[in-house]
């Protein structure tokens, strides 16, 4: 946490400040507003993701700009799709081509706004893509992780397309998509798989691993199995858990709403926590990955949104019961960071 406070958070703040200056110059009013909103309301995503840079401080000048730029693309596109002037899956697919291009250092840039009315962003999205590509070129073992990263990003893009289309079509499309993958993830429910695809943590961990010149294919496989689906699923289920009331009012799809009871929610999330802990135990520096798991639980369950939703508050108490000291430590830190952001 000393590394996070001393190096990571200031680094993230500096990167977001620079991107905010670019966003302020976006010509189109709608695109400018969504770019600014994504940074002001979701900066915690960049702060949390950049924690991976704390595991390799000498490389933070590569990892922090890379993680912040990639997460900023994700948050910006999520805003564009959530508050979209379009319900066109072709539009959503083309927007998210930027994420696939961002993780391919040799990819050409595309017209990411081809199928939408708002187009003039002053080069903002392309600049984010190019920043990712430039920093990826500095990762010596990127070739070893590129296939895994592309698969995770492809799943992420699929999710964003299916969850943002017309309300009467999205659940059927998500279930059809799940049918294509269910055989590989029989231990999960469809909503838990979908949640896993919505996390960028597996990508960030693979960015970190790619900085290691001694990386092996076996280690890459272990990282993939630990993070996807378990750590990633936990991440997004917790996010959806605290957003249930907000999503209900906004008519947004929420994967935690597919649990039938409070007890079922607690049991399934607790089971995913246990599986995530088991899988990270075989990784190098397992204590770091356990910190990520406990930090996620503390971060989301300490969110002020929890206290405003009685059902979520009860679930939170159940999940926090008999918490290890690490989780309680991060609970306090999460509250402190929010208060001082």
User: Mean pLDDT, rounded to whole units?
Assistant: 92
The biggest beta sheet reads:
none
Runs with pLDDT <50, length 5+?
none
Q: Roughly how many Å apart are the termini?
A: 16 Å
Percentage beta strand: under 5%
Order of helices and strands: HHHHHHHHHHHHHHHHH
Output the structural class: mainly alpha
In total, the number of strands is: 0
Helix content: over 70%
Identify the overall geometry. Answer: globular
Structure annotation, total helices: 17
Radius of gyration: 19 Å
Protein described:
The chain is an all-alpha fold and 341 residues long. The protein is 72% helix and 0% strand. The protein contains 17 helices and no strands. It has helices at 2-23, 29-41, 43-49, 60-82, 89-102, 124-136, 142-164, 167-181, 190-197, 201-209, 217-242, 244-250, 262-280, 286-301, 304-307, 310-320, 325-339. Helix 2 (29-41) packs across helix 4 (60-82). It is globular. The model has no long low-confidence stretch (mean pLDDT 92).
Brief overview, please?
By secondary structure, this protein is mostly helical.
